[in-house]
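pipeline/complex-builder :: batch 7 item 3
reading input block
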Amino acid sequence: MSIINKDRIVEAYIGEYAAGKSEAALSRALELAALGRKVTLVDLDIVEPCYTLRPVQKELMARGVDVIAWETKETLGLGEAGATIKPEARWALRRPGDVILDIGYGVAGSKTLKLLEGADEDPFLSVICVVNTSRPMTSGMEQIVEHVREMGKVDGLINNTHLGGETTVEVVQEGAGIITRAAKNLGLPVVATTAPAFIAGQIGSVDCLGNPVRPLAGMMSKAFW
Amino acid sequence: MSEKIMQEEKRVFMTGNEVVAWAAIAAKADIMYGYPITPQNEIMHYWTRLVPKYNKAFLQTEDELSAGFTTVGGVMAGRKAFTATAGPGNTLMQEPMSMAEMMRLPTVVVIQQRGGPSTATVIYSQQEVTLTTLGGNGEGMRIVYSTANHQELYDYTIKAFNTAWKYRFPTFVLGDGYQAKMREPLTIYRPEDRGMQIIEPQAYVGLAGVPGRDRPPAHHRNTYNLEEELYEKVSHDMAEFERIAPEVAEFQAENTDDADLVVVGHGVVFRAVREAVNNLREQGHQVGYFRPVTLRPLPVQQIKELSAGVGKILVVESAYGQLARLFKEVAYGGTAEITHFFRPGIGITATEVADRVKGLLEPVLRQPRLRKASFG
Amino acid sequence: MAPQPKMPRSWRAETKPHKFCPGCGHGIILKFLGEAIDELEIQDRVIFGCDIGCSLLSWDFFNLDSVQTHHGRTIPVMTGIKRARPELICIAYMGDGGGYSIGTQHMVSAAARNEKITAILANNTQYAMTGGQMAPTTLPGQKTETSPYGREPELTGYPLQGPEMVSAITPDGAYVARSSIGNLRQLKGALKKALENQINGNGFSFVEALSSCPTNWRTNAKDTWSFIENEMSKHFKVGEIKAPGTGQGEAG
C-alpha cells in the first residue's frame, strides 16, 4: 500500500498538561478503526508522562488500533527524566494508513513533531490543540489565544472542556463558546467538541455553536501511570 | 490577565502538582527554590509559568540540600519561601530541615512520596512518613499535613504557610505520586474571600536600622556549647511543640462509637478506607474509620480514646508500618487489638480493605492463634 | 592601660576579645572585612553567614545580622537570602573544608550562576576545629591526623586550586582573588573589591585568603609565617585572578 493516499488522516494532538490529549487521540483512533480504516496510534508523551497510552495499549490493539508505545515494565525509571521515545515512533509517519499522534505537554508545543521523520513535508499532517477551559491556564479567550500561539504550528482546536466526574452539558457548552471565540480570533477551525459518551448523546451531533460533537471512549481513567 | 483567575471562586480541573502551585500563589508565597525530581516536577513547571504573572521568584538549585538551605535563607530574609521534593530528595532535605527545626524557621516543604528505599519507583508510596515526621538529627518538631484529594492539597498548602509562620516550626504537606498526577475537580479561591487571615512573614535578618547602633544585631545560630545549654533549648521548644499540638492536630472520624472495628488510614489511602467502611456499613457491619490529617503532631487525645473504646483497629497503609508505628506509640495502653494491612509502595483499593476487614470480623476458627501480628 | 588598636565600627565590642587561637588568621581576615564594611558604609544591609569549623566562632563577631549555618551550606543560605531580598549584601564566610569539600557543589553552582553574593574562604590547609585532619588544600607531604605520614598526592591528590577553579567557571562580572594574611594591603583591597562587586550587582565574588593555624601546625610565630610565605606560596599563587572589565581571567 502506498503512503500517498488521498484520504489519509494524520493528526497530532497537542495541548496543555491534563487537557485531555490522550483521550481525544485514542477516541479518534478508535473511531477511525471502527470505520475499518488502518490506524496507528503513537505515544509521544515525553514530559513527565503519567496518564499515558501505555496501560491501555493492549485493549486498543484488541479493538483494531495499532499502538506504538512502551510498556512501563520495559523501561527502567520511566518518568524519571521524561520518557524515552520508542524507536518505531520516529518512523510512524512512514506507515501506511492513518496515523494519530498523542503528543505530551511541555513548552516545546508542536515542536515535538520534529522528532518524527517526515513531519516537515507530510501534506496530511494536521496539528490539533486540545483545550479544557476548566483548567486555569486556559480558562479565558485571551489566555487560549496566547496559549495556542505559544504552541507553534496548530491547524485546529478541540473543545474538551470538562470537570471530570462533575461534567455537565452546561460545562461543555460554556467551554464551546469560549473556545470558538478563541478559534475565530486565531483564524482556526474548531475541529470538534469532545465529551463523555452520555454527555455527547445529550448534546447531539453538534454543540451550541455548530461544532461537531465526538464522544470520548473514556479509557484514560484506566491509564494512570 | 491570569490575576483574574484568583479573583473569584472557581471550579477547576487540575493535577495535584498544579494545585500546589496555585495554592502557593493563593497563600501569597514569594519564592520557590527547587530541584527536579519525579513526581513533584509540575509544581515547579507551573510555579515558573505563574512567576511573571504574579511577580514571584524561582531558583532552580544544584540539589535538594541547596533547595532546602536556600529556602531557609528565603524565610530568614522574611519572605514566604517553599520547596518541594520526593524520595531521595526528601532524604537530602532532612539536613536543611533539621536546621529549620533548631532555629524555628517557618519553611514549607511539599513532599510527593515515591517508592522507596533508594531510587525505587517514581510513582507512589506512603514510605516517607517516618522521614517527613521524624527525619533529621532532632526531635521531629515539625508539622505534617497528609492530604487525600486535590481540594485538600489546595486547602492545606495554603494552611501550611499560615501554620508555619504562626508557630515557627517547619511545616510539610505530605502528598504522594498518585495525588501529584491525578486529575480531579476542585474549587480554587482566595483565602481572604473566605475570611481566612493570611499571616504576614517577618524577617529574621536584614532588619531596619544599623545593628549595634540603632538596635542589637540579629545573631542566629544552631550550634550550642554545652549539653545543658542544648537541653534547655530543646526542652523549651519541645514544650512549646507539645503545647500547640492539640490546636494543630487534625483528624477525621466516622462511626467509631459503635464500631467493632475501626480502620485507620491516611493520605490517598484514606479514600479507599472511607469507601470500604461506607460499603461495609451499608452491608450491616459495625465498622468505622479514623484518619489522622496531621501525622505530626498526631491527634493524641482522639487516638487514645479510640484505642480504649474499640475492640479492633486495622491500620492500612502503602508502607510497612510507618503510620502504624506512630499510631501505636500513641495508642499504647489502650485495649484495642491493633492489626495491619501493609502494602509498601503499592496502591490499596476499597475492595482490598473491605476483604481484610471482613476477614477480621469473622472469628477465625481454622487455625489457632499463635502470633498476634498479622502482616499485609 | 596600653592603647588598644582601633576596632572596626562593624565589630561587636561586647564579643571581644574573640575566641580564635593566638596567631589564627581568622581575626586578621575579619578585621579587614570589618574595615571594608565600614568604608563602604553598608553595615545596615550586610548579612553575614558563617560556616561550621572555626569560622563559626564568628557568628556573633560583628554588629551585623548574622546566621551560623551548617558545614558547607553557607553559600546556599546566603543565596536564598539574596534571591529573596536582592538589596541585602550577603557574605558567606567559610573554611577550605566547607568551600572545597563538603560544599563544593554549592561553590561551583553559585559561581556558575554568577550568584550575586560574596564568598570568603580561609585556607589553612587542614580541618582545624576537628583537630587537624587532611583537607583538599593540604600540601603534598604535609602531616595531618589523617595523613600521618604526610599527604601522598598519588593517593589523595594535590592541593585544590579554588580561585582558579571558580575563575574558570564564572561568567563575566565575577570577581576572584587569592589573598594572604601575609599581604595585608592586598587582602583588604581584595575584600573591599569583592564587596563592591556585589554592591554593583556584577556577579559572584570570591576571595580565598591564605590563613594560619599555628595550633594545628604546631608552629611558633616565625615558623607560622614561614609556612605561609615559603610553603603555601609554592602551591597557591596570591593575586587577583578575575575582575570585571579588566580582561583578567579570560582564557589564554
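note: Chain C has one domain: 16-124+159-213+223-242.
queue -> next item
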